[in-house]
Amino acid sequence: MRLQEGSIEFCHTVYPSSPVFMQIKLVLVFTAVLFQLGNAHGGVHVISELTDPAFLLAGAVVAEDAVVYIAGNGVAAVNVSNPTQPELLVSLRHPLLFGCGGLHIYRSADEGNLRLAVTCSSTDTLMLIDVENPRELKVLGTISDFVVLSRAADVVVKGNLAFVAVPGAASVVSFDITSEASPVHLSSIKLSGADSVSLLDDAHLVVASERGRRVSTLSFSPHGVLFKIGSIKDERFDGVISILKHGTLYLDFTFVISAANGGTFAVLNTTSQSRPSIVTAMQASVRLARPAATLKNEGKYDELGVSYIDAGWAPYGHKSILGATGMVLIENLIYIVGNTAGTISVMDVSDPSKPRIIRELNDARLIGAANICAANYDQESISLDGVLQILVAAVPSTGKLVLLKDTVERLSIQSAEL
């Protein structure tokens, strides 16, 4: 049987038996197009920029297909179907859209229409926006409360429930958004702090506290009632910036980045919601367990004494995550943006217990970047050979969107006979 290219072809030949010998020959032929995922071939590159006042003070960025939404002082929509020529579609201004740093894209529970939930810390606001037509954004409903939503920082939506992380009140707050024009406050739960929130599964949340150096797990009922069921406190969560949970991949794990140790990436096992635990962590700052001269002679780090990218896995000295501010997960890869030196790190989490930075980019245009997302593009009309992913980073200090491509290089077909 002959299999298609990219598969394995087995050719089994049995020679006739004889009194002298029986010869069996097994030929195993691999025919595959290989991809180079390292730095030597392919990599992350800036392909375009878009500058507009709408991107100044941008605090959050998300994408749906080829449209990117940016929240800051207003909400903007950008078409990146041609990532070499991004197009600003619309910029929505509103008196309550100031200091917006939480952004979640979802579909309405009733008719499945595309929506944005936005939180704005400067106005203590949760706003719901109709983005079914990305050229015409419409405000559906808002709720502002300087007590309940004090410095509202982040938001996620599940069905007809919205959950908001509220650092000013050190709490997570739930809202019924069945009536999008008038969200209703349902429940609040007090924690040591609440700066970032993500869905853990259909009935649980995971919440990060910068002030409390803590990650907590919560359960919620169909009516939005919240209960704390577990937490973990660790110095590596100091200054937690973002927490990420993927709904279908890596079901046992939650990913966290924080400002601790110059920039920290941590993997949590959240299988047991009552007892989350740290699986591993990587940090930007250097803390060598053995004398520097010994490690240098062994090639464990570069001349600056901080890069382990070519020496296998190590927990310290990953300068590319210095100032980590945002991340996005695509299959087995996490892209982390570091705003201190302007870096993108590509983290392979195929083995979550030992994540590896497999390639990285340093570009001054990314200095001060606030967040990053992944977007689709029109592959039928735009030819971008070897592109693995299109990424979009928001740089609020310069009012720019920076578009990048992560590429892989196609290598020769190989065969092997055993």
Would you give an account of this structure?
- By secondary structure, the protein is mainly β.
- It has 1 helix and 32 strands.
- A 4-stranded antiparallel β-sheet has the order 4-31-30-29, with no helix packed on it.
- It is globular, with a radius of gyration of 24 Å.
- The chain starts with 7 loop residues before the first strand and ends in an 8-residue tail after the last strand.
- The model is unreliable at 1-41, 288-296, 298-312 and 409-418 (pLDDT under 50).
Strand content: over 45%
- Describe the strand arrangement of the main beta sheet, using strand numbers: 4-31-30-29
Which percent range fits the helix content?
A: under 10%
Rounded mean pLDDT is 82
Record the SSE blueprint:
Layout: E1 8-14, E2 24-30, E3 35-36, E4 43-51, E5 60-64, E6 67-72, E7 74-79, E8 87-92, E9 100-107, E10 114-120, E11 125-130, E12 138-144, E13 154-158, E14 161-166, E15 171-176, E16 184-190, E17 196-201, E18 204-209, E19 214-220, E20 226-233, E21 240-244, E22 253-258, E23 264-269, E24 277-283, H1 292-297, E25 324-330, E26 333-338, E27 343-348, E28 356-362, E29 371-375, E30 387-395, E31 400-407, E32 409-410
Antiparallel strand pairs: 1-2, 3-32, 4-31, 5-6, 6-7, 7-8, 9-10, 10-11, 11-12, 13-14, 14-15, 15-16, 17-18, 18-19, 19-20, 21-22, 22-23, 23-24, 25-26, 26-27, 27-28, 29-30, 30-31
What is the structure about, briefly put?
This protein has 418 residues and is an all-beta fold. It has 1 helix and 32 strands.
